[in-house]
Automatic annotation (TrEMBL):
UniProt main location, coarse: membrane
Organism annotation: Ficedula albicollis
Listed transmembrane segments: 66-81, 288-311, 342-361, 811-832, 909-931, 943-966, 978-1002, 1008-1034
UniProt protein name: Phospholipid-transporting ATPase
Topological relation to the membrane, as annotated: Multi-pass membrane protein
Entry's localization field: Endomembrane system; Membrane
Gene Ontology terms: biological process: phospholipid translocation
Domain P-type ATPase A: 123-186
Domain P-type ATPase N-terminal as annotated: residue spans: 33-90
GO cellular component, one term: endoplasmic reticulum
Stretch forming the signal peptide: none
Family (UniProt): Belongs to the cation transport ATPase (P-type) (TC 3.A.3) family. Type IV subfamily.
Gene3D superfamilies: Calcium-transporting ATPase, cytoplasmic domain N, Calcium-transporting ATPase, cytoplasmic transduction domain A, HAD superfamily/HAD-like
GO terms of molecular function: ATP binding; ATP hydrolysis activity; ATPase-coupled intramembrane lipid transporter activity; magnesium ion binding
Length: 1125
């Protein structure tokens, strides 16, 4: 039990040695002193909490917040010493905040547990007790033999034992791990490859020794010892034998493999970043503001304590005749009395720290997150997927993004290719309705009739049909003896290739016999096949990048083809050049001999193969070039351009090849054609990488007018980050766009962390669709998963999930903008209203000899933040739309107005704080001047007491702070009206009942009949109206002047919405006939305030505007009636 607890806490890892020994089918040795190793189970865990650690871990995270910790201290102080207010005034709100937050975070983590359980509960088949047993994925143990069928995902990291093929090979796609859609071939060792049945596998006696788990996807070292007829055969195991969790079996009916790494020890899980609590910039700002207010609180408490003792220095005030001290008080220590008085003042003023701010923010985030899921513009009809929110804590962070890191495959692209154009023998052809048509000819033109193929055209088509690694798989039905059915109709064919370009070009097989394949490698940048024609002729067909084919060509239309290739590239097509060579029988014999010697060499095999390939691939005859379109997702180019206009830099991080990545970056608009592309690729040493970085930095300084784009690969990146991090970051920040290719999953996370921790501390967003993107998604401030074809790992580990990349624009420019504006106002409004609340309490001490007498009744102290002023700001923070969603999306530049935490900086915070102190002084001294020393406000000459004075101040304060919220509201719905005016009405009704009835359960009732008596005075009513107007008038004047003299882009957009396709929204208000004489003044004020009454708005949109045409926003709750406009 103790060991289990230590493992759960991470103090006792389950394995200690450098290697692990795995007995296949868990046949442990029966003799000797064998000590079984402990391995992790096969559960995948993406949640933060468990049943055991939820309470302590959640409490620890919550008490990291300054306000929560502070109120805990205040609550304990109230329990320990005699204070002016009851402990309930601090304890109850604290308990409410902690409970609501814990429920919300617990619910979100329960959703993660639910998603994990779906994965861990997936059905799998395991060989046990001589048969195939169906069990759950989480029950797989290290050593189990697992059966995986075609198109299924591997549930653990497996060593391949056998497949349905005689040679024990199988084909796997790892798109969800490294982003590559190519097919990878894995092979079993010969001794186990023949064991193709469950019965034979059950008799297998073998042991695997391999390294402990590591994150590198492409490294695996081990050996398998197979016992056969009292003989032990040892075979090496490498990456070609390991099938990774998350990969998918293709073109193979079934395989059997033994589990070597399970659960969180699989390579996929090790590439996840450990879960950490993400905290938004707004929350960090809140903590900073709280510290400032804590300093204000301590200053007020210390000053009050010092003034109290200064006042009591005079004997008549120290012990007046009506309040004599007890003997104990006279003899008590002065230091203890000073501390006790200081703590008492601390408790009296503690409401300047708004504890209910956190619970309101939590509710706003939780309830506001539903709008993302409900937004029909983020719904994808084809896949029936809507946007998903996994973590609502980061809603406002969507409005602060400065860098977007995106995956390529499946995120920017659809992973689908289409053949578009080709160049054959210097003539350009286009694909039109499935036919190749020479440029300038239409399909129905006289010259476009079918004709015989010339020699070069026939060779070109043979080359693209034969020079590939495509495999064809026919789905056979029972009873069919092959892919051809009896009626002559072929069954559906599936194509698998090591390159997506090949898959797009191949349409049929041929009678040619394949002799040799010269595999692609990044140094040669080409691949070749040697084939034998039906007539016995030996031919070499080669294809590759133009830079690797054209220099090796000695004949053909080289110049024309080069021009065509450049034209294809300008259109964003992926290009390949195709060439061929004929061999004489003698040449072929020599080539075949040299290839065999190089392939069987035990030393320097790669170098010898490279020499032979270069010897073969020379003196080529150029046939032509192809242009294949890598199909981008819809509106990717527009989205990237909009992000750029919004001041957001886009980095593409992909595991794909250099050429492919650059081609897609050009076609999607990430790189512009006019951009100067800088490269930091294929560096093997530290010195060359550093020298290249210095040259790039120099070029950028020299050509500072031109936009630059940077391409860097994984190996060069590792070198750059090792010792030249600062120089690399300088180069990157001066580039408009950065493309990182050949990236391992953890390298993606490292790049994100590099930007995150740079001195500017920019807000980062990562978006991807596969398991290889999980580390990056978890590292970034905001992680977004794409619901693509690569499984659900990215979605499960993301903060938000969307179906398409194009939805990112609305998520940031509309939802992010609204969430940030709403929460920025909410936070600062809370501090403002608490300054208004507690400053009169501080001022009142100057009039009561600092006796710690409270100005307000304890019920008002408790309910001020919970009931009287909480709902208007909560509703504002859910529904406010200071600019219409369409305008925000069509004008990405408005996003710049809120970037870098503009609305929660020091200046706005200082303005709200000073405004709070100003209003508090007006409340207190306005009421004091009205009541005066000996003034009666009642007709019978009766005087008001201190409770009536406090109630007058409190009444003015509740009305003013509620009206202030109304002034900040631009978008009025019936809910806003209901809670704004309803809060004021509720305060009056509650006060009448609270003070008008003698409640038996209250020990004292100081407020009995006080409120009724206050409202019976006409002078009091006049004072309330006068003080409220005096407070708000200055604020209105300031808003009017600033909107006239220094309007922001957002405020200009509010005034020019009519010119953006929005009718009748000139001032965001419409007016019917019969306007009064004051209407023009009212219209001007409402125009300047950006106020709107949505029930009188006609929102008609220009059908030509692409951002408006299909908008189905559900954010508008009010009815749209155009009849009054």
């Amino acid at each position: 039990m103790l060991r289990w607890v230590r493992q759960q806490l991470g103090f006792d890892p389950p394995h200690q040695s450098d290697t692990r020994t795995i007995y296949i089918a868990n046949r442990f040795p029966q003799h000797g002193h064998y000590v079984p190793q402990k391995f992790a189970d096969n559960r995948i865990i993406s949640s933060k909490y468990t049943v055991w650690n939820f309470v302590p871990k959640n409490l620890f995270e919550q008490f990291r917040r300054v306000a929560n910790f502070y109120f805990l201290i205040i609550f304990l102080v109230q329990l320990m010493i005699d204070t002016p207010t009851s402990p309930i005034t601090s304890g109850l709100p604290l308990f409410f905040v902690i409970t609501v937050t814990a429920i919300k975070q617990g619910y979100e983590d329960w959703l993660r547990h639910k998603a994990d359980n779906e994965v861990n509960g997936a059905p799998v088949y395991v060989v046990r007790s001589g048969g195939l047993v169906k069990t759950r994925s989480k029950n797989i143990r290290v050593g189990d033999i697992v059966r995986v069928a075609k198109d299924e995902t591997f549930p653990v990291d497996l060593v391949l034992l056998s497949s349905d093929r005689v040679d024990g090979s199988c084909h796997v796609t790892t798109a969800s791990l490294d982003g590559e859609t190519n097919l990878k071939t894995h092979v079993a060792v010969p001794e186990t490859a023949v064991l193709q049945s469950v019965a034979n596998l059950d008799k297998l006696v073998a042991v695997i020794e391999c390294q402990q788990p590591e994150a590198d996807l492409y490294r695996f070292v081990g050996r398998i010892t197979v016992s056969q007829q009292a003989e032990e055969i040892v075979r090496p195991l490498g990456p070609e034998s390991l099938l990774l969790r998350g990969a998918r079996l293709k073109n193979t009916k079934e395989i059997f493999g033994v589990a070597v790494y399970t659960g969180m020890e699989t390579k996929m899980a090790l590439n996840y970043k450990s879960k950490s609590q993400k905290r938004s910039a707004v929350e960090k700002s809140m903590n900073s503001f709280l510290i400032i207010y804590l300093i204000i609180l301590l200053f007020e408490a210390i000053l009050s304590t010092i003034l109290k003792y200064a006042w009591q220095a005079e004997e008549k005030w120290d012990e007046p005749w009506y309040n004599e001290k007890t003997e104990h008080e006279r003899n008590s220590s002065k230091i203890l009395r000073f501390i006790s008085d200081f703590l008492a003042f601390l408790v009296l003023y503690n409401f300047i720290i708004p504890i209910s701010l956190y619970v309101t923010v939590e509710m706003q985030k939780f309830l506001g997150s539903f709008f993302i899921g409900w937004d029909l513009d983020l719904y994808h009809e084809e896949t029936n997927q809507r946007a998903q929110v996994n973590t609502s804590d980061l809603n406002e962070e969507l409005g602060q993004v400065e860098y977007v890191f995106t995956d390529k495959t499946g995120t920017l692209t659809e992973n689908e290719m289409q053949f578009r154009e080709c160049s054959i023998n210097g003539i350009k052809y286009q694909e039109v309705n499935g036919k190749l048509t020479p440029e300038g000819f239409s399909e129905d033109s006289p010259d476009g009739n079918r004709r015989g193929l010339v020699k070069e055209e026939e060779l070109f088509l043979k080359a693209v049909c034969l020079c590939h690694t495509v495999q064809i798989n026919a789905d056979q039905t029972d009873g069919a003896d092959g892919p051809w059915h009896a009626n002559g109709i072929t069954s559906p064919l599936e194509y698998y290739a090591s390159s997506p370009d090949e898959k797009a070009l191949v349409e049929a097989a041929s009678r040619y016999k394949l002799l040799h394949v010269l595999e692609f490698d990044p140094n040669r940048r080409r691949m070749s096949v040697i084939v034998e024609s039906p007539s016995g002729e030996k031919l070499l067909f080669t294809k590759g990048a133009e830079s690797s084919i054209l220099p090796r060509s000695k004949s053909g239309e080289i110049d024309k083809t080069r021009i065509h290739v450049d034209e294809f590239a300008l259109k964003g097509l992926r290009t390949l050049c195709v060439a061929y060579r004929r061999f004489t029988p003698e040449e072929y014999q020599e080539i075949s001999k040299r290839l065999h010697e190089a392939r069987t060499a035990l030393q320097q095999r790669e170098e010898r193969l490279a020499d032979v390939f270069n010897f073969i691939e020379r003196d080529l005859e150029l046939l032509g070039a192809t242009g294949v379109e890598d199909k981008l997702q819809e509106k990717v180019q527009e989205t990237i351009e909009a992000l750029r206009l919004a001041g957001i830099k886009v980095w593409v991080l992909t595991g794909d090849k250099h050429e492919t990545a650059v081609s897609v970056s050009l076609s999607c608009g990430h790189f512009h054609r006019t951009m100067n592309i800088l490269e930091l690729v294929q560096h093997k040493s530290d010195s060359t990488c550093a020298e290249q970085l210095r040259q790039l930095a120099k070029r950028i300084k020299e050509d500072h007018v031109i936009q630059h784009g940077l391409v860097v690969d994984g190996t060069s990146l590792s070198l750059a980050l090792r010792e030249h991090e600062k120089l690399f970051m300088e180069v990157c920040k001066n580039c408009s766009a950065v493309l990182c290719c050949r990236m391992a999953p953890l390298q993606k996370a490292k790049v994100v962390r590099l930007l995150k921790t740079s001195p500017e501390k920019p807000i980062t967003l990562a978006i991807g669709d596969g398991a290889n993107d999980v580390s990056m998604i978890q590292e970034a401030h905001v992680g977004i998963g794409i619901m693509g074809k690569e499984g659900r790992q990215a979605v499960r580990n993301s903060d938000y999930a969307i179906a398409r990349f194009k939805f990112l624009s609305k998520l940031l420019f509309v939802h992010g903008h609204f969430y940030y504006i709403r929460i920025a106002t909410l936070v600062q409004y809370f501090f403002y209203k608490n300054v208004c609340f507690i400053t009169p309490q501080f001022l009142y001490q100057f009039f009561c000899l600092f006796s710690q007498q409270t100005l307000y009744d304890s019920v008002y102290l408790t309910l001020y933040n919970i009931c009287f002023t909480s709902l208007p700001v909560l509703i504002y923070s859910l529904f406010e739309q200071h600019v219409h969603p369409h305008v925000l999306q069509s004008k990405p530049v408005l996003y710049r107005d809120i970037s870098k935490n503009a609305h929660l900086g020091f200046k706005p915070f200082l303005y709200w704080t000073i405004l709070g102190f100003f209003h508090a002084f007006v409340f207190f001294y306005g009421s004091y001047l009205l009541m005066g020393e000996d003034t009666s406000l009642l007709g019978n000459g009766q005087m008001f007491g201190n409770w009536t004075f406090g109630t007058l101040v409190f009444t003015v304060m509740v009305i003013t702070v509620t009206m202030k919220m109304a002034l900040e509201t631009h978008f009025w719905t019936w809910i806003n009206h209901f809670v704004t005016w309803g809060s004021i009405v509720f305060y009056f009704i509650f006060s009448l009942f609270y003070g008008g009835i003698i409640w038996p359960f209250l020990h004292t009732q100081d407020m009995y009949f006080v409120f009724v008596q206050l409202l019976s005075s006409g002078s009091a009513w006049f004072a309330i109206i006068l003080i409220v107007v005096a407070c708000l008038f200055i604020d209105v004047v300031k808003k009017v002047l600033y909107r006239h003299l220094q309007p922001t882009s957002t405020e200009k957009a509010q005034l020019t919405e009519a010119g953006s396709g929005i009718n009748c929204l000139d001032s965001m208000c419409c007016f019917s006939d019969g306007e009064t004489a004051c209407t023009s003044v009212r219209r001007m004020l409402e125009r300047l305030m950006g106020r709107c009454s949505p029930t009188r708005v006609n929102r008609s949109w220009s059908s030509s505007d692409p951002f408006y045409a299909n908008d189905r926003s559900i954010l508008t709750l009010s009815t749209m009636d155009s009849s009054t406009c």
